[in-house]
Write a structure and sequence with these properties.
There is one protein chain. The chain is an alpha/beta fold and 455 residues long. It has 15 helices and twelve strands. The strands form three sheets. It has a seven-stranded mixed beta sheet with strand order 1-7-6-5-4-2-3, with helices on both faces. The longest helix is centred in the N-terminal third of the chain and has 24 residues. The radius of gyration is 23 Å and the shape is globular.
């Protein structure tokens, strides 16, 4: 690696593992990582198979501690409060399923919660006495402050009903639509009202600046593989010391668990090196999967520092490029970028590396609508599958309050021209939907669009 940072944009593509034909406009869904991190990952996997006992009992715990120290530094949190889980959904499950609920306890969540997390809440409410309440709102109509006010009202109404708002779960960045959420303000409201705060920061670390000591949420989890350039299957779970006694077990329960009835039970795989707290030891070895992605944090951070020029440079670029790019797409489509205040260059929804552009397709039941309301799911599915099969890219296309939108991701290997190409692709696909109304989706003609985009 060069000691001087590369120009951000297309020059960085050579460090990643993309097919030469692939344009990755959807970094947010699954992330990706450079070849240098792949090499570290493969090395760990090879060592684990060469001498399994040496690696898993002695080498791996040391590497895990180095990764925990590295991730704690970037999050501005104590090392003994940071552990790894496979993904943010696992982090959310770990917290919600460890809490003990009484018949009056309520879990509060928000309208745009990630679907798997909502299902986790509903599952918890099926298997415990807990109840749940949802905060309703609409982006572009309700500002961040209005959303926070609606949360306050739900909390107060819950208390008026004689119930206990036990915990609230909310995002740093919402997944669909991809927008910034007022998580900082919500943490403060939780503190004031005696509600535990659980932040689903799936789109957090490596995406926006985070200082967990200053934020001081009760629980925080974030995928490292989405924006930090680590392999899939790595996420951080942060639990302040004050709340660690609430986390009794990992999921699945494994070697670090100590039953209350027998706290001194022998651990078959004891921690090597420095003595761990109960919380740290609990998460040290949960052998349900390949754990080598957890060891890749230092390698990923080295790439970000030495090749990309460091966190500040990366975060500034990915937010800037998606802002410019999404505006270019909206201009091509003759529509708009989702925002609370379209006139502001620093709109609260767009202070992140995700942006949503409205598609020029009307939805309804009238004959003059471009898409029949009953066909929305099929049209979205056709557009997404066509992008993958015919154009070697992907954009999430989704319905949000009577309009179809496409979500774009900013990243260090992208330039505005990539977004412009994506805008022309969407324009052509939308024209195909309009011109072929009434025909089977699989019969839509995209030959001319393919010729145009290949020029």
């Amino acid at each position: 690696m060069s000691s001087d940072p590369m120009p951000l944009g297309h020059d960085l593509r050579k460090y990643f593992l993309f097919d030469s034909k692939y344009t990755n406009l959807n970094h947010a869904s699954f992330g990706t990582y450079p070849a240098s991190v792949r090499d570290h990952l493969r090395k760990q996997q090879d060592e684990a198979e060469a001498q399994p006992d040496r690696y898993l009992r002695y080498t791996y715990p040391e590497l895990l501690d180095k990764s925990r120290a590295a991730v704690a530094e970037i999050l501005c949190a104590p090392v003994n409060e940071c552990v790894f889980v496979t993904n943010a959904t696992t982090g959310v499950n770990t917290v919600l399923r460890n809490l003990v609920y009484g018949p009056m306890d309520v879990i509060i969540y928000f309208d745009t919660i990630y679907a798997a997390c909502e299902k986790t809440i509903l599952s918890v409410c099926e298997t415990t006495p807990a109840r749940c309440r949802k905060v309703e709102y609409q982006f572009m109509v309700h500002s961040h402050r209005a959303i926070v006010q609606k949360f306050k009202e739900v909390v107060q109404e819950t208390k008026r009903q004689g119930l206990v708002p036990k915990i609230a779960i909310f995002d740093t960045i919402v997944s669909l639509p991809g927008v910034r959420f007022p998580f900082e303000m919500l943490v403060q409201v939780c503190k004031a009202d005696g509600v535990l705060s659980l932040i689903d920061g799936a789109h957090g670390i490596g995406h926006i600046p985070l200082n967990l000591k200053q934020l001081d949420a009760d629980f925080f989890t974030s995928n490292c593989y989405k924006w930090l350039f680590t392999p899939r299957g790595s996420a951080v779970l942060h639990v302040p010391v004050r709340n660690q006694e609430l986390i009794r077990t990992t999921y699945p329960t494994s070697h670090g668990f100590h039953p209350i009835a027998n706290q001194n039970r022998y651990n078959a795989l004891p921690a090597s090196g420095p003595v761990k707290t109960r919380f740290e030891a609990l998460f040290q070895l949960v052998p349900a999967a390949d754990l080598s992605p957890y060891t890749c944090i230092p390698s990923a951070l080295a790439f970000r520092r030495e090749v990309c020029g460091g966190e500040e440079r990366i975060l500034q670029y990915i937010r800037s490029i998606v802002s410019q790019g999404a505006s270019a797409v909206a201009s091509i489509l003759g529509t708009e970028v989702m925002a609370t205040d379209a006139s502001s260059s620093k709109d609260e929804l767009r202070t992140c590396a995700l942006a949503n552009v409205r598609l020029p397709l009307s939805i309804g039941t009238a004959l003059d609508a471009d898409v029949d309301v009953d066909q929305v799911g099929k049209v979205c599915g056709w557009m997404q599958k066509t992008m993958v099969d015919e154009f070697h890219t992907f954009l999430p296309v989704f319905l949000y309050y009577d309009h179809l939108w496409a979500r774009f991701s900013g990243q260090v290997y992208l330039e505005v021209s990539d977004f412009e190409w994506g805008g022309k692709l969407l324009e052509g696909l939308c024209e195909a939907v309009k011109n072929n109304k009434g025909r089977r989706l699989e019969d839509m003609d995209i030959c001319e669009l393919k010729k145009t985009l290949s020029m």
